[in-house]
Amino acid sequence: GDDNIFIFGMKAHEVDELRISGAYNSWNYCRDHPDINKIIAFISEKINGECFMEIMNYLTTGGFNAQADPYFILADFESYKNAQTEIASAYQDKLRWNGMSLTNIAKAGVFSADRSVGEYANRIWNIKPL
Predict the structure, then answer these.
(1) φ, ψ for residue 72 (rounded to 5)?
(2) Angle, CA 126 vertex, CA 19 and CA 28 arms, to 5°
(3) Is residue 18 a contact partner of residue 75, using CB atoms and an 8 Å limit?
(4) pLDDT digits (tens, 9 = 90+) for 68-83
(5) What does the alpha-carbon distance between residue 1 and residue 55 come to, in Å, rounded to a whole number?
(6) Cα–Cα distance measured from residue 99 to residue 95, given in angstroms and rounded to the nearest whole number
(7) R_g over Cα of the chain
């Protein structure tokens, strides 16, 4: 239940709406969000090299004329950051954290990674399995 999970990011219908609208521009997120700029600056200082440039190219320009950031990673950043704040708060409360952990372990049988990935592939990524 909602008491034992941290969910962040857009819902599938929001992703669809953003994709259809064509309004998403990942470069604007880099430019307009100071936290994203700080992260990019930090990573570029620590990991300056071809790998980092490929990641930045993927997120901001798409490279090879592909759509930049087709999974809307940067659009979910603020939601991710807020979830991390909630997680840090929950972790400080040992009784709450341990209760959440045990509940999730006890109910893990309901979860299927294959099913989840299949749903993402079909509903969000719009890709077919090989």
Answers:
(1) 55, 40
(2) 30
(3) yes
(4) 788 888 899 999 999 9
(5) 35
(6) 6
(7) 18
Contact at 8 Å (CB) between 87 and 93? no
- Give every CB contact of residue 58 below 8 A, 6+ residues apart in sequence: 68, 69
Query: What does each C-alpha distance from 24 to 19, 76, 106, 116 come to in angstroms?
Result: 7, 12, 40, 25
- Burial category of 90 from C-beta neighbours within 10 Å (exposed 0-12, middle 13-18, buried 19 and up): middle
Percent of residues, the chain, with pLDDT higher than 90: 32
How many of the other CB atoms lie within 10 Å of CB of 55?
13
Confidence of residue 56 (pLDDT cuts 50, 70, 90): confident
**CA-CA distance, 32 to 98, in Å (whole number)?**
38
**């997680």: which residue's tokens?**
87
The pLDDT mean for the chain works out to 85
User: Residue 86 is which amino acid?
Assistant: E
Burial class (CB in 10 A: 0-12, 13-18, 19+), 59: buried
